[in-house]
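Re: [ENG-882] Designed sequences occasionally contain unexpected residues at chain ends

Forwarding the minimal case from QA. Structure tokens:
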């Protein structure tokens, strides 16, 4: 099968089919990237107008977080229709125009696929509610009778990721499963109609010229629904952290072995296109299990979150890098590196927090306890990103990282949109602080995001981080990224690295082939540079020495 090219899109059949193995992929959260119509909400036309920014930055691809019809109960991950565009964000014609312009600029397009659940507004779920217990419509979801004398208790003790029971009762007395918000009923992947519908969805977007898919919650599709459904026995066992404590594949709804049948089926569809469509799994599972999702006959790549979760410590980071490379190699995949995304505190703030800080408590304090040294956090974020970009494999960047944006931790509670805030009884503020719309200019009602305001308030400090404020400014974070990506493209050679063990405490040093070397100083004292010509440093060198919290690339 060959894709129907969008008008104006170059023929991709001659492109390297393995482009994704060492690509730099830029995540766009559509509602917060750029607003073309001035309504305060980012949209597809806004993205299209700003694609030259990504081309100038030097990334290989853009990944669009959900832009589908949604009531935004979970930031767009509550999908009403997996094959359409939210009218507030545009139309399918707008999507085609975006893809065409991206391809004209040499950028690949990856879209988010959300197969674990739909929105409660999805036509299938509305039909299920009307059809009643025992119906074929209900079998597309996970409906069960409750426990207790009158069915008044949830079917199991399973907990939602967002807090509280993972079950919601409907008026006729049955309960449905929602591992996330109640507005996100889980689909039943034992139902062939569900499987067939997502095959159609894969073809729908691939036929429109999409180059790949990011698969949301890839590890949760298949559940153990044999009766009686089994309790977990403790609330904490409902979380992904429990996977390290339970026998592999034994959790009732996470990382079950049967889920791989789904992805082997998908790979046949993706490989039928010329060139084959790529895919990457969001799978919060231990490394050896995560590698299974990245096998060539499945999705081909899986997000590695260990780098994101690692502390600012040389020994810990080296261990994460070594194990991640080994896991990827065992699967025949390339490694992936992530330092930020739409779900976590931005690294310019997170890396400045003392080790062991509970980020949820820090957010609840409005970022005041403890206070963050923004300059120190930005220095570490720049060093961490330059280190990441030197590693073999694909780097996934989150919008605004190239600007060094900090977390907006002090958003007033009355403006919060993330369902986590309400579902946890105001114990966790949620993820809005990393989703605040981008600043493009140093002035205007929304710093160039649009002609009006922004759906989440931007702090005055954003003016100094704006694209216009950093463009062409030597030493700015934006220019650091542009230079790093330009050099990276020239220097890439192979998918391996060689560690140097003769280094001072707190220092990481490795060579990429015989062409270049990366050194990161995570200690609190300057260190001497090894042999090599400095190409780029995340902070100025100190009399020819590498200062604390700094990364340098050296030509050999």
């Amino acid at each position: 099968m060959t894709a129907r090219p969008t008008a104006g899109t170059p023929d991709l059949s001659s492109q390297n089919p393995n482009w994704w193995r060492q690509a730099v992929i830029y995540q766009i959260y559509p509602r917060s990237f750029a607003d073309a119509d001035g309504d305060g909400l980012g949209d597809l036309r806004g993205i299209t107008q700003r694609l030259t920014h990504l081309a100038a930055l030097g990334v290989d691809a853009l990944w669009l977080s959900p832009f589908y019809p949604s009531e935004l109960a979970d930031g767009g991950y509550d999908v009403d229709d997996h094959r359409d565009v939210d009218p507030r964000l545009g139309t399918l014609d707008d999507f085609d125009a975006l893809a065409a312009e991206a391809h004209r600029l040499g950028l690949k397009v990856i879209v988010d696929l959300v197969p674990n659940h739909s929105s409660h507004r999805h036509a299938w779920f509305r039909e299920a509610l009307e059809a009643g217990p025992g119906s074929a419509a209900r079998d597309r979801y996970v409906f069960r009778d409750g426990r207790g004398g009158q069915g008044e208790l949830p079917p199991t003790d399973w907990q939602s990721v967002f807090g509280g029971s993972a079950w919601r009762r409907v008026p006729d007395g049955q309960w449905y499963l929602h591992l996330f918000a109640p507005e996100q009923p889980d689909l039943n992947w034992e139902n062939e109609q569900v499987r067939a519908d997502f095959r159609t969805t894969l073809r729908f977007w691939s036929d429109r010229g999409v180059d790949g898919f990011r698969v949301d919650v890839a590890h949760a599709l298949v559940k153990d629904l044999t009766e009686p459904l089994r309790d977990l026995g403790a609330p904490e066992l409902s979380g992904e952290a429990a996977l390290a404590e339970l026998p592999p594949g034994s959790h009732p709804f996470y990382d079950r072995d049967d889920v791989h049948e789904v992805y082997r089926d998908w790979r046949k569809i993706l490989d039928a296109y010329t060139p084959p469509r790529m895919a990457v799994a969001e799978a919060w599972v231990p490394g050896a299990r995560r590698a299974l999702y990245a096998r060539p006959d499945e999705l081909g790549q899986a997000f590695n979150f260990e780098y994101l979760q690692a502390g600012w410590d040389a020994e810990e980071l080296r261990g994460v890098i070594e194990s991640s490379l080994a896991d990827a190699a065992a699967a025949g995949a390339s490694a992936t590196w992530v330092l930020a995304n739409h779900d976590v505190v931005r690294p310019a703030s997170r890396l400045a927090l003392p080790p062991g800080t509970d980020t949820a408590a820090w957010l609840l304090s409005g970022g005041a306890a403890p206070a963050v040294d923004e300059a120190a956090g930005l220095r570490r974020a720049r060093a961490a990103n330059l280190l990441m970009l030197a590693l073999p494999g694909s780097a996934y960047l989150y919008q605004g990282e190239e600007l060094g944006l900090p977390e907006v931790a002090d958003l007033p509670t009355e403006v919060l949109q993330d369902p986590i805030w309400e579902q946890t009884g105001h114990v966790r503020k949620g993820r809005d602080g990393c989703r605040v719309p981008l600043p493009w200019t140093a002035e205007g009602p929304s710093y160039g995001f649009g002609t009006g305001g922004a759906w989440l308030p931007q702090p005055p400090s954003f003016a100094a981080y704006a694209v216009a404020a950093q463009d062409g400014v030597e030493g700015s974070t934006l220019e650091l990224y542009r230079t790093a990506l330009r050099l990276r493209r020239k220097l890439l050679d192979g998918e391996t690295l060689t560690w140097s063990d003769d280094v001072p405490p707190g220092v990481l040093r490795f060579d990429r082939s015989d062409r270049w070397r990366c050194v990161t100083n995570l200690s609190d004292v300057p260190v001497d540079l090894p042999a090599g010509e400095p190409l780029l440093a995340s902070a100025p060198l100190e009399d020819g020495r590498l200062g604390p919290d700094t990364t340098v690339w050296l030509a050999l």
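QA comment: On inspection the terminal residues look reasonable. The first helix runs from residue 44 to 49. Proposing we downgrade this to a documentation issue.
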